[in-house]
Write a structure and sequence with these properties.
Strand content: 15-25%
Helix content: 25-40%
Structural class: alpha/beta
Largest sheet: 4 strands, parallel
Number of helices: 4
Shape: globular
Radius of gyration: 17 Å
Number of domains: 1
Oligomer: single chain
Number of strands: 6
CATH topology: Spore Coat Polysaccharide Biosynthesis Protein SpsA, Chain A
CATH superfamily: Spore Coat Polysaccharide Biosynthesis Protein SpsA, Chain A
Distance between the termini: 44 Å
CATH architecture: Alpha-Beta Complex
CATH class: Alpha Beta
């Protein structure tokens, strides 16, 4: 069981939602929980069916709330220790990314991780050459003022 939930807010992303979830399922070591939040799509795609196909939790807004509010709703519905927010047009290539990420988080429990993305060649669908980087910052809860 994974300690990471993937949260994907989107609007009118079409087939990209399916492709993103598929890449998560194909590359994760565990069956990571996925929450997709449809923020008022009007493109006619059956996103609920997409969620069912991949055993993802589905939240649908009748009216647009915005990306930040949708992301916050996903975080509020997370049942794991950690969460990862993704756009609905992302592709993950690294196998076992979830276990690798959990190892980093276990070693640095107050870390805030920010990664970067890579351009994909539209013809070959291969990652253009450059090294992936993960940037780590430490989060410390504010200390209470002494009286």
């Amino acid at each position: 069981m994974s300690n990471i939930t993937v949260i994907i807010p989107f609007i009118n992303e079409g087939i990209e939602v399916d492709k993103t979830i598929q890449s998560i399922r194909e590359t994760s070591a565990y069956n990571v929980p996925i929450i997709i939040i449809n923020d008022g799509s009007t493109d006619g795609v059956d996103y609920k069916k997409v969620a069912q196909n991949y055993h993802a939790e589905y939240i649908e807004h009748a009216e647009r709330k915005g990306t930040a509010a949708s992301r916050d709703e996903g975080v509020a519905n997370t049942k794991t220790c950690y969460y990862l927010t993704l756009d609905a047009h992302m592709t993950i290539f690294t196998k076992n990314w979830d276990t690798r990420l959990e190892e980093v988080l276990a070693a640095h429990p107050n870390a805030l991780l920010c990664g970067n993305t890579h351009a994909i060649d539209p013809v070959t669908r291969l990652q253009k050459p450059n090294k992936a980087r993960v940037y780590m910052a430490r989060y410390s809860a504010p200390k209470k003022a002494s009286r």
